[in-house]
């Protein structure tokens, strides 16, 4: 056979693949998203579904923060929650940051942290109670439920960070696909796959996968803690509804575990490798795409940086909560650099901004990360930004603030693709030197380029992979053959022993 | 966006995919196969590698049973083992079957089974000792090792059923890919992935994944037994070589676990779903392809069956060991059926063959299974045949003989795609009735068609998936980012806790 010729099997693969790319058939998908940055991801998946000919209905609350009532690519179902707690505003999360910074500034006594942690648990419970109200409103509304039944949806697509959609899917008897990284009270794998604490760092602790014995003890303790939170704080909120609407004998946790396909927003160039399951499909970085051209103004600014290039900074939507004394130090450090700086900043404008620094309330982050003149990305470590920097091979200066951000930037740091700063300890010098180190030492860029090249070395784009498996579940009315028996185990320990 | 249009991401996926299918670059692969039916699989993978432009060298022994010294798609390296034990002959395995049947016939006392089991353990040790001799011959031959180093291989491809290639790969410092279902003393997953005994049936016991408490106890006992065999019978054979050639402090088991990619000959339409690992790639059924036309003679015979269609029977290469009293009962049962029968039979010809039965020493199994007139497949439950029957949607009558065959057919039986017979209990009537039930009751065919449709619903043909990942490892000089830390755990229990 001549070299490189396509044999019959390759031709078959190509035909299957072309048929996936070109076939249009119309399925019906009911979507339960999570608001905020999670919606950015889900919205892309919905656009993908729409472009492949499917009809999408998005369930949103009347007070939704990001999810618009009308859009060309979906119709929406708006649920009004009585006495809504105001968690769907950015400020709600900003207040967390302010409190945490205040505690750290005061020396951070264990009691202060404990009380902060306790408050977070209370908030977690409130968030889930509010989210569960969407389920109550829907399940109580017999006419609505009948209408949903009559629509004959093929699938419920859920972001299980707030997993109320699971109840509605159960009531409608429909297969479910999760678009997931976080679930109830931790990373998604911890609910569905064995997670040996000897080498799988648990959620909420910034630990590596190569742990010392003491780190393993710490990890096991946190694993137990997370399990308790899940069992005693989060799940009871939904178990009450399960008992009310579906009778006793069912457990919400088992319903959660029973999802057909878990589209996991994870790629192992970023996440530590760990045990997985046949019904977990990895789609980390599915939001990444080649850069579009910048606006003329931005392009002019970027080009004016010459050979020095430019640095992009974005600390996400929480940056409003950073006190001015920190942003002033950052501004002063930037002013001393030869690079141009583009800084996404929605809070109070620092007085000492350098001439090289452009402040913007919003910026085309993905297009800037894909620009050839970019030298580094100063980021809080949100996963969207991290995957975009991996995709584009841009080294990172991590300034984690809250939630999963410390764990995220640790993963890049361990791979030599980032340096991490403690936001409460930042000085003008330390910030300047760290940024310079990441910009000038090829070590960071080379490592990030390697991650980028590994990440791009896939037979299919992860968004296409996601769409393939969503359609797989619609075509086959589920994916039971990929779901282990673990989710039926009466005791959580049985699922891993 | 118009329905079904290809958006930019799909176009990117297509470009990546087309580039995979058409790009030819020449890598060098050193292959350590296992003889017998395993070679049939490995040979297909080698043909795929050759057709994509890679140079393949196959390591074989001078007494090899199936692996030819010369072939158009590979060059070979022949190792002569002094005082070779004659395990590379079919008769060696046939004798096992004869012994087991004799024990069962005599009533099968526990002592007789224990003694048989003990003898099998002894044989297992001998097989591995002989296989390890290939490693000794190679590692002792300094000139040969230097020549291999100079050839600058990119990769060692190993069937770890006999894992001696792992030692040579270690000596050459090369990344490894496993083409695996069986490893050392059990199914491959048990070495590399967490295997909760609550729902993962262990190798060597025909248990379902939905187990009773007693079955779980039995499963856990067998899991322990297999672990002991691995630790005290198989691994010591190779550990002695590891110590001799690489010094102490290294463990062969860890080397085995450290393979870069595990191409697992498993698909979950067949295997029970179970925990897996990021570096396990599923290629079950990669040998399957659309049928080629039959020879004129065979086609005439098959067409002469009219609407009744035909039944295919093959009990693999071991059928020579079946006593004539059993084959006579089978022949008598076939003679009573309205279907035509094509029977692969290399042993003594039964005297009572019906006119409807054609006996052949070899037959184009895959093409016959793909023929529209086939009604059922009577099979011993070897995995090649099982995947071909799944691919073609042909229901199975299982007549398992030895090794993994009872477990294999149990999996199909649980899915309603097969009925299973105990070969020692076969009567003419039971055999006839079972075959008729599978042929005439649409339940079996419908279930098998469903498995077939699920199996075929993949974005890429599994052989292309295998080739993609082999090339991935060559391109990236390994796949360390997909390999968990579990393989470095000092104690096996740590890897799952």
TrEMBL record, chains A, B:
Enzyme class: transferase
Subcellular locations according to the entry: Membrane
Record EC number: 2.4.1.17
UniProt keyword Transmembrane, yes or no: yes
Main subcellular localisation: membrane
Catalyzed reaction equations: glucuronate acceptor + UDP-alpha-D-glucuronate = acceptor beta-D-glucuronoside + UDP + H(+)
Any single Gene Ontology cellular-component annotation: membrane
Domain of life: Eukaryota
Protein name in the entry: UDP-glucuronosyltransferase
């Amino acid at each position: 056979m001549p070299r490189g010729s396509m044999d019959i099997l390759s031709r078959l693969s190509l035909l299957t693949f072309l048929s996936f790319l070109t076939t249009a058939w119309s399925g019906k998908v009911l979507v339960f998203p999570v608001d905020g940055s999670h919606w950015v991801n889900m919205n892309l998946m919905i656009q993908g579904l729409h472009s492949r000919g499917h009809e999408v209905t998005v369930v949103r609350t009347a007070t939704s923060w990001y999810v618009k009532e009308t859009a060309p690519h979906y119709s929406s179902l708006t649920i009004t929650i009585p006495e809504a707690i105001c968690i769907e505003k950015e400020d709600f999360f900003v207040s967390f940051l302010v409190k945490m910074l205040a505690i750290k500034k005061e020396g951070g006594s264990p009691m202060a942290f404990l009380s902060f942690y306790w408050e977070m648990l209370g908030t977690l419970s409130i968030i889930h109670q509010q989210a569960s109200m969407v389920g109550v409103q829907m399940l109580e509304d017999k006419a609505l439920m009948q209408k949903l039944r009559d629509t004959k949806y093929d699938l419920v697509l859920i972001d299980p960070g707030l997993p109320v959609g699971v109840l509605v899917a159960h009531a409608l008897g429909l297969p479910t696909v999760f678009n997931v990284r976080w679930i109830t009270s931790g990373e998604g794998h911890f609910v569905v796959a064995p997670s040996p604490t000897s080498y799988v760092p648990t959620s909420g602790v910034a630990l590596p996968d190569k742990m010392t014995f003491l780190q393993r003890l710490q990890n096991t303790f946190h694993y137990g803690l997370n399990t308790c939170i899940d069992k005693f704080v989060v799940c009871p909120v939904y178990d009450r509804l399960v008992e009310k609407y579906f009778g006793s004998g069912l457990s919400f946790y088992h319903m959660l575990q029973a999802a057909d396909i878990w589209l996991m927003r994870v790629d192992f160039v970023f996440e530590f490798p760990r045990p997985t399951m046949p019904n977990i499909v990895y789609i980390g970085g599915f939001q990444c795409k080649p850069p579009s051209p910048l606006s003329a103004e931005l392009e002019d600014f970027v080009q004016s940086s010459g050979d020095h290039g430019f640095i992009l900074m974005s600390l996400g939507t929480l940056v409003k909560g950073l006190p001015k004394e920190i942003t002033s130090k950052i501004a002063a450090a930037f002013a001393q650099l030869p690079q141009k700086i583009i800084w996404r900043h929605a809070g109070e404008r620092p007085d000492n901004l350098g001439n090289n620094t452009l402040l913007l309330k919003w910026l085309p982050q993905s297009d800037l990360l894909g620009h050839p003149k970019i030298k580094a990305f100063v980021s809080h470590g949100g996963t969207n930004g991290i995957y975009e920097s991996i995709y584009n091979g841009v080294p990172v200066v991590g300034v984690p603030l809250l939630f999963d951000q410390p764990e995220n930037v640790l993963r890049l740091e361990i791979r030599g693709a980032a340096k991490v700063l403690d936001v409460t300890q930042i000085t003008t010098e330390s910030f300047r030197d760290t940024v310079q180190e990441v910009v000038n030492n090829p070590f960071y860029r080379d490592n990030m380029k390697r991650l980028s090249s590994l990440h791009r070395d896939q037979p299919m784009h992860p968004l296409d992979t996601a769409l393939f498996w969503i359609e797989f579940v619609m075509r086959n009315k589920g994916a039971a053959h990929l779901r282990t028996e673990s989710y039926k185990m009466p005791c959580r320990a049985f699922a891993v022993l």
